Amino acid sequence: MVLFSLTNDSETQAYYFQQEEKYLEFFRYLFKKNGHVSIYVYCPELASKRKAIFRFLKPRLNKQEWSLFKKVKNNLVPHNGLFELKSLEHLEIFAKLSLRELHFSNFFFEESVLIGNYELSLPLYCFEESYIKECQSKANEVDLFIRTEKAEWAI
Fold it and tell me: What is the pLDDT of residues 106-144, one digit of tens each?
């Protein structure tokens, strides 16, 4: 079920786009923090070559996003649903698909894992407590909130 549609719910669309930029800023932070290490994105549905996925996504992405999605889809070779990303631009298209609830992905950074989820609630798993504190600081900077619980954090 798709809860966000660019075509028929302008209030939801406006809210998601407003929030989306905050989340993208957080993804950019994680990308930068990750250094030169590749990021892995698990999205088995997008790894398939099914045309239904393309027909579903095309009207929900603007021209620039659609062009980038096709480029990513054609140039990145997934291994069992896992894409290796070395570009912020590629990371952002996967992030947008998750944030808009079009196709969820799991994002594997060197020190953390961010899980695509409904209603802009993305669980963040970290290996070190100090890392989550740094992430909390950045989340606060971009007006996001990380709930802290034992072994799991969500933004």
Answer: 999 999 999 998 888 888 988 888 998 999 999 999 998
- 31 and 88 in contact (C-beta within 8 Å)? yes
pTM (predicted TM-score): 0.84
User: Are 39 and 48 contacting, i.e. CB atoms less than 8 angstroms apart?
Assistant: no
Query: Which residues have CB under 8 Å from 124's CB, separation 6+?
Result: 112, 113, 114, 115, 132, 135, 146, 152, 153, 154, 155
